Amino acid sequence: MSAPALQLAPDVADPSEPGHPGGDPVDRPAADAEACLLSALMQLREREQIAVILANVVPADFDDAVHGALYRIVAGMLGRGLPADFPMVAHEIDARPDTDAHHRVPLRRRLVRIVDATAYPERGAHYAKAVVAQSLRRSTAIAGNALTEAAAGAIATDDLYAYMCELGRAQRDHHHRYATLSTATGRGQDR
Q1: 34-55: per-residue pLDDT in tens?
Q2: How many Å apart are CA 1 and CA 4, to the nearest integer?
Q3: Which of 59, 67, 116, 128 has the fewest CB atoms nearer than 10 Å to its CB?
Q4: Nearest-CA neighbor of 10 among 109, 90, 89?
Q5: How many angstroms separate the Cα of 37 from the Cα of each of 26, 95, 129, 161?
Q6: Are 78 and 41 a contacting pair, CB within 8 Å?
Q7: How far is CA 1 from CA 109, 154, 159, in A?
Q8: CA trace torsion 28, 30, 35, 38 (10° rounding)
Q9: What is the predicted pLDDT for the residue at 115?
Q10: 191 SS3 class
């Protein structure tokens, strides 16, 4: 017999919770683009906007691995034509506990926090753009560091150019997803 849809597990220290040692006291779901995107996506009913988000956001765009796992669940449900509101996502977590690398307890705990994000569903593409922009900045820094290490001798000289091109193509594709979301939000690319 499964637990009620949104029953919390026993208290376990969560480093993202306010007041946790090392946690940021101003970290609130409403100020987190990742949480807001998930909240909006679970409330959004406009199929065209859902399609744009699902085509341009990938789980790896999420800095928080639990958010990425929840996005994978929500996107999978929407992709199969299933409703993906809060109770149905909780049910999916319980019904398929082995479908993700994360145990259901952290997924359900984070889902409850995301319910509190009070995102505006009509802003889903804007939240998606913010998530992809943050991801693009992180991946650009990682690519820059990788290229610096390669130039310092981690890659053979004959392979440096090909490696640089490979990193550049990955960044170009990432930027293309960001640009698509910029167009979908009716705004040009931000700084």
Answers
A1: 999 999 999 999 999 999 999 9
A2: 9
A3: 116
A4: 109
A5: 19, 23, 9, 37
A6: yes
A7: 19, 54, 57
A8: 160
A9: 84
A10: coil
- The residue among 134, 173, 139 whose CA lies nearest residue 34 is 134
Q: Which residue has the tokens 């977590």?
A: 93
In this prediction the pTM is 0.79
Q: What is the DSSP letter of 180?
A: H
Cα(60)–Cα(58) distance, integer angstroms: 5
| Among 56, 12, 76, 66, residue whose Cα is nearest residue 34 | 66
Q: How many CB atoms lie within 10 A of CB 100?
A: 19
pLDDT digits (tens, 9 = 90+) for 87-115: 999 999 988 766 556 678 889 889 998 98
> Would you state the structure tokens that stand for residue 64, as one six-digit string?
């928080």
